[in-house]
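Pipeline run #58 for the internal structure catalog. This entry was flagged by the ingest filter as a single-chain record with no existing model, so it goes straight to prediction. Upstream metadata was stripped on purpose; only the residue string is passed forward. Reviewer on rotation: M.T. Logging verbosity set to normal.
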Amino acid sequence: MRGVLAGDAALAPGTALALLADDTRTEILGAFRGAEPLGFAIFHDLPEVVFARRCGQLDDLFVLPAARVQGIARRLIGALTDLGHERRWSHLRWFVPPEDRAAIALYERVAEEPGWRSFICRLDPATSL
């Protein structure tokens, strides 16, 4: 994992951070002001067989409500695109619910909509949004 927000603190089994800490395929970029966490981006480095390269999949992007409208989300995306250039990703992709207007407004400024439709098979409806 990259930039773990919990540092050396013990993580209770079953917590979201413990789940991430145990997953070697998941990486996290954190945004901090000094030692204070402000937000994070959870992402994966994936094979992209169509282009015979790798790509980035942004899974979650979160900024604390008190830290929003300060450019933190934009900088996290910028850090991921920089990382993608270093790793020679073909692209960075992510999904956003259509009702999240604030996020969509930012994403339209920093990225383009590919025109693909997204589908989901809800394997456990009780735990899937």
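catalog note: The chain has a mean pLDDT of 83.
catalog note: DSSP finds three helices and four strands in the chain.
status: ready for reviewer M.T.
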